[in-house]
Design goal:
Blueprint: E1 3-7, H1 16-29, E2 33-35, H2 48-65, E3 68-72, H3 83-94, E4 98-103, E5 118-121, E6 124-127, H4 142-147, E7 149-152, H5 155-164
Parallel strand pairs: 1-2, 1-3, 3-4, 4-7
Antiparallel strand pairs: 5-6
C-alpha cells in the first residue's frame, strides 16, 4: 500500500486533529496509508527550539517514508501557500517523490491580485510595492508550479485523480 504524506497548514487549525483523522480516513478509502504530521509523538516539555527540531525531524522522516506527498497549497495568511508546506513539497521533489498540490480556485497567479492591488507597466504587472508579479499562466510561483502537479479542488480531488491513473 502506497503511503501519502499529508502536507499543509491544516495543522494550525483549531480542529487540526479531527481534520487529520478525516484526511487519513480519505486515504484509506482510496487504498492509501495517510501520514499526518500531528500523528508524530513529540515531547512538548522541552525548550522551544528542541521541540521545533523534533517536529522538523519527525516530519522529514515521514516524508522520506512516503511514496507521495499531497499538499494543501491554498493561500495561508496572505496570497501564498504556507512556507512550511512549500518546503515539504520541495524536499519531496528533491527525493524524487510524487508531489501533488490542491488549490481552489487554481486561477492564474496574476489573477489573485485585484485591479486595486496591481498595476501594468511596460508589458508586466507589478504589485503596489513595485515588485514584478509572475505571469506564466500558472496558479503559483513557477518553482512550485513546475515541480508539483497542481490540481484544482480538494484533497479528495487529488486522491480521485491518483486512483484514476492506476
Amino acid at each position: 500500500m502506497k503511503k501519502i504524506y499529508i502536507a499543509g497548514p491544516d495543522v494550525f487549525e483549531p480542529d487540526s486533529v479531527a481534520i487529520g483523522k478525516n484526511l487519513v480516513q480519505l486515504c484509506q478509502k482510496y487504498g492509501y496509508e495517510g501520514l499526518y504530521p500531528l500523528d508524530n509523538i513529540v515531547d512538548f516539555s522541552q525548550q522551544k527550539h528542541k521541540i521545533a527540531q523534533n517536529i522538523f525531524d519527525a516530519n522529514i522522516a515521514m516524508i522520506q517514508e512516503a511514496d507521495i506527498v499531497i499538499a494543501n497549497l491554498n493561500p495561508f495568511r496572505g496570497k501564498e501557500p504556507d512556507s512550511g508546506t512549500v518546503f515539504e513539497c520541495g524536499y519531496a521533489y528533491g527525493l524524487k517523490k510524487e508531489v501533488y498540490g490542491y488549490l481552489s480556485p487554481a486561477c492564474n497567479y496574476i489573477d489573485r491580485f485585484t485591479e486595486d492591488e496591481r498595476f501594468a507597466k511596460e508589458g508586466s504587472f507589478y504589485d503596489l510595492d513595485a515588485r514584478v508579479i509572475e505571469d506564466f499562466d500558472y496558479p503559483l510561483n513557477l518553482m512550485l508550479s513546475c515541480s508539483t502537479k497542481i490540481i484544482e479542488g480538494s484533497f479528495e480531488t487529488v486522491l480521485k485523480f491518483l486512483k484514476g491513473r492506476e
